[in-house]
Amino acid sequence: MGESTFRIDNQETEEERRLGHLMLQEAKDRAKPLIESWITYSSPDEESHLRSVDRLTPYNPLSYQLRTFLNVAIDSIRTTLRYVEVTNEIPMVAHYSLIRTSVEASSYGIWLLSAGRKEKQAWLSLRLSYENTQELDGLEKVFLQASMPAPDREPIKQRLIELQQNLKAYRTHDITQRSTTTDVIANADKSFGKRKHETSGLQVWKACSGPAHGNGAVITALLEREPIGSESEYGQTFLMTSRLTVTGMFLLVAIENAERLLELLGQQGRKNIPNFS
Questions:
Q1: Residue 33's closest CA among 99, 78, 89, 80?
Q2: What is the reported pLDDT for 276?
Q3: Measuring CA to CA, which residue among 114, 93, 69 is closest to residue 223?
Q4: How far is C-alpha 168 from the geometric centre of its chain's CA atoms?
Q5: Judging by beta carbons within 10 Å of its beta carbon (0-12, 13-18, 19+), is residue 33 exposed, middle or buried?
Q6: Fewest beta carbons less than 10 Å away: which of 96, 155, 182, 220?
Q7: Which of 24-33, 109-118, 171-180, 233-242 is predicted least confidently?
Q8: Whole-angstrom Cα distance, residue 133 to residue 157?
């Protein structure tokens, strides 16, 4: 496996393992009420701030988008914890993709809700709907056979542009403009004061992107390594396993994000909160 930097036995100490188990237990404890809140989550009140934004985004209401982000975020957490519970083991790398997905989805929801004023929230929502429509165009081109005509999605795009014209401050903005996922997650991180474990959503998302993309260098850095077998001119064979501390830490950040998204949904989806217009 190359130079000596990658031939070090970096297995977790007993103290680190104990800490990792504590973080996993905390993640499990916090996930239970989170999942219950997800299952029982109700639609926004008719007189709430969020419903007023829905009326500006009737093609794909903001609250519908937010519910999708919430579903993806919490289901990814639930699936990760369920696997650990049933198998009594942590995957080598598969769970990093789930954690990454959860952080990304919840960050998009937090980003939309943190925009504040309802016209800006509506604008970001419309722009995201337009972007998703364009991506669906690309997906259909992959699946359609040569003899099959592609659906005409121009009326949808025009409808979204028409809705944009109702937003006085955003009539002349470019609806095809996109925010990068990195910018969205960094913006969502600003919604937090100080995280309990001082790890940001952006840090977790970037770290988890390595395993998700099969980046061997990042995988080697994240996992613990136990040298096994004999050395050769090309390096040494290692047994690689997930670190309890890293898994616990990353899961807690994903859970914090989902908790924050639910909190903002509650604040803006109930009728007794201030209007941000």
A1: 78
A2: 39
A3: 93
A4: 31
A5: exposed
A6: 155
A7: 233-242
A8: 7
Give the whole-angstrom CA distance, residue 191 versus residue 177: 23
Q: 143: which residues sit within 8 A by CB, 6+ positions away?
A: none
- Separation of alpha carbons 246 and 249, rounded Å: 5
Q: Report CA dihedral (47, 132, 111, 24) to the nearest 10 degrees.
A: 110
Can you tell me the distance from the alpha carbon of 156 to that of 143, in angstroms, rounded to the nearest whole number? 20
> 231 phi and psi, to 5 degrees?
-85, 155
pTM assigned to the model: 0.89
CB 189 within 8 A of CB 201: yes
Q: Where are the beta strands (DSSP E) in the chain?
A: 224-232, 235-241
Query: Nearest to residue 62, comparing CAs of 10, 139, 115, 22?
Result: 115
